[in-house]
Design brief:
By secondary structure, this protein is α+β, with helices and mostly antiparallel strands. It is 36% helix and 25% strand.
């Protein structure tokens, strides 16, 4: 039996392959390097995700500030809702966040300095878990209490920078004068540094009302 002639296309591909391999397999190192880099990237991404999920699981109560959180938009919880939560909680703390305009007289130029501030009001039980980081390290209740008719606040560094103030200064917050009694360096139930996106302040919930 006479063997069938080879396919011309196959012979052409074989000639190309032999020609490419004539210089050795050095060119394949780029291919191998790409494979190794891809495998490393996939393994690294998986490790980061696993570490994040493990940390989130271990620190979830601290990040949340408790075991559960209920949020309401543009209103406070109703008496019935508060009663429902109180029946099911060993301890209950309330907070509210609003954007408020801050103002001080601009002694170095015309007009007042006006900035929008992220103001968070908290009650006397806040925080249930963790600690608020203040400088100086004062008790939170003493920092936010009302003294001689003036409420106190803890202000982020960005707030101090925007208004050119320091701890001990005073500004008008939503039409009410407040004293800056501490710098706000950290809140246990919030990620990141306070005031990273806009100036922020911590104030008593009664003062916010």
């Amino acid at each position: 039996m006479t063997p069938a002639p080879s396919n011309p296309t196959t012979r052409a591909w074989l000639r190309i392959a032999m020609r490419e391999l004539a210089g050795g397999v050095g060119g394949f190192w780029i291919y191998f390097a790409c494979l190794a880099l891809g495998a490393w990237a996939i393994a690294a991404a998986g490790s980061v995700t696993e570490a994040f999920n493990r940390g989130l699981s271990q620190q979830s109560r601290t990040l949340l500030g408790g075991d559960a959180q209920l949020s309401f938009s543009q209103r406070e919880a109703s008496p019935a809702e508060l009663a429902w939560m109180t029946e099911r909680a060993e301890a209950l703390t309330r907070s509210a966040s609003v954007d408020v305009m801050g103002r001080i007289a601009n002694e170095g130029g015309p007009g007042d300095i006006i900035r929008q501030i992220d103001v968070r009001g908290v009650d006397a039980l806040f925080p249930l878990i963790g600690e608020v980081q203040l400088d100086p390290a004062l008790p939170l209740a003493a920092t936010l209490e009302k003294r001689e008719g003036v409420w106190g606040i803890a202000a982020s560094q960005t707030l101090l920078d925007e208004f050119g103030l320091a701890v001990g200064g005073r500004l008008e917050l939503g039409g009410v004068d407040v004293d800056i009694r501490a710098r706000l360096d950290g809140e246990p139930d919030r990620l990141g540094k306070p005031g990273a996106f806009q100036p922020s302040a911590l104030i008593a919930l009664d003062a916010l009302r």
